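Q: How would the structure tokens look for this protein?
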Amino acid sequence: MTAPSYETIRYETPATGVARITLARPEMRNAQNEDLLYELDAAFDRAAHDPAVKVIILAGDDPHFSSGHDLSGARDMTRFTPVTSWGGAAAEEPGVSGRQAREEEIYLGFCRRWRDLPKPTIAQVQGKAIAGGLMLVAVCDLVVASEDAQFSDPTVAFGVNGVEWFSHPWDFGIRKAKELLFTGAPFSATEAERMGFVNRVVPRADLAAETLALAERIAQRPAFGLRLAKQAMNQAQDAQGFQTVQAAAMSLHQMGHAHNEIVHGMLVDPKGAEIIRREAKAK
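A: Here is the predicted structure in token form.
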């Protein structure tokens, strides 16, 4: 059987039991358009259904892991076969209906699928993981970060409550999650490790090797044991109201978009980009 071909990602098996998926839009700082997200979903499915794969690494081409969602260019969701019950033609409907369908499919829906993959996932992060980039890191089970890695969610500046995958209270704790959202300031790799969001911080030159070594160690365990351990941990999180929070946060996110359309005539508060640029220059 011919292996699938991809335009925005790479798929490889660098060691026994390990698959590595790499975001491959470095010229766009690995910003996520629809093509990349659907290819990433297909690659995750490929690894999940391959009995030879026990662990999945998610990486991004240099210089940055991912700058977030790519909101430029034409959008036509009918180009893709829906993965959830929200995609396809429903995402092309006018108004809030279409926008919610689109974001429920490619943002929240995909993240739910990836978080619940039946195999351990490891994010290999260098440079910046901003907004949608932070989402990709957050859905992974483990995180190995280079010393220069930064994690941020500046989207409150755009007049919404945060990104579509709202795991912040679990990832950072309530106080630090509020700081992340209220200020938009990034957490360094060292800070993120101290908060428990990052498992290991390593020199950038060693990032790929250290991540692969961790994956190889995990791959020595039986696949079913790994699956059960992951299910147990995710179910513990769900028992704390994790899925309820995701649904509520998405509703608030859509309210923010709707408010911005009424007040500003666009999905986001136009002052947001100005705020983010000004703060970036001040650093």
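Strands lie at 9-15, 18-23, 55-60, 121-125, 128-130, 142-146, 150-152, 187-188, 200-202.

The longest helix spans residues 242-264.

Upvote if useful.
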